[in-house]
Amino acid sequence: MNPAESRLHYPLGESLPASGCAMELAPGIRWIRMGLPFALDHINLWLLRDTLDGPHGPTQGWTVVDCCVDIPAARSQWEAVFESALEGLPIVRVIATHMHPDHLGLAHWLCERWNAPLWISATDYYTALAASTGSLFPSTEALSDFYRSHGLSDAEFHARLKDRGSYYPALVPKLPMRFHRLMDGDRIRIGGHDFECISGYGHAPEHIALHCAARGILISGDMVLPRISTNISVFAGEPEADPLKLFLTSLKRFDSLADSTLVLPSHGKPFVGLAERLQQLHAHHQDHLAVARSACTEKAQSAGELLPQLFRRELDTQQLSFALGEALAHLHLLWHEGVVNRVCEPDGVYRFSTT
Hints:
By secondary structure, this protein is an alpha/beta fold.
């Protein structure tokens, strides 16, 4: 446990749900934990006891929040959950906090199997629809040009970029053809209680967290994680974006929530201490901004040249692309605020400096 994480309270201690099982956190609220084939090796999913009105009257069952990637191991874990945790009741609704594969990958399978509707923001639905067909991503050549223009020239990294176009469709092969739109401020009635939608930006196109004031629960998705800060990146498709400003502004939407709120994050363990964690996230990014500004004061820096100063560990190909995007996000915030200047130098690389 890192020092920041140790200042939070974990009501369940070291307890984790067993594979294929669900752990009850409160009456009608259950925690599922599934493995992921990435460095971030798990995702938390949530079962909420629910009653949903349908064409033949109300149906008792469960609302699922987030789905895991579409891989055989995840389907097998879900099959075990169906047997062990649903008490013979159906899944009546599937909610996806956002469009990333670990959250949306199996939505189509769950919705088809249980004839359940998908609820998600429209921005994330349509972005996911484009990504699942492969039409969202730039060509390998365009991706290479983007990364090289920001100082990332590693030959092995560029050789692997040809697989990036198939990354999302492999994990999210299809989507339900209909969905129910979620928007900021919407109230969803789940299990006799209202959950308010809180939109967030910077990590995903239109991330939706769910807050139930009556029960003191926040399903935070990836917006507020206890151990790490969620990835905030500039991508090739929006090369001059300022996602870090969007993310830090979005975090302020959680300031008014009670500090006694039980936060149910997508990664890590449920915790209490929301105000402390929000402060830590702001401090983390301010520290990174200070590092970036200091480096740019010493000499002009590309995002690639800044990586060793922001990430002091070895990075695999996927982590390297996220790290470059995140370094660029910090540089772009400074650039858009006029703290640093950006120049495309003769070698074709964008560099940032305070002069």
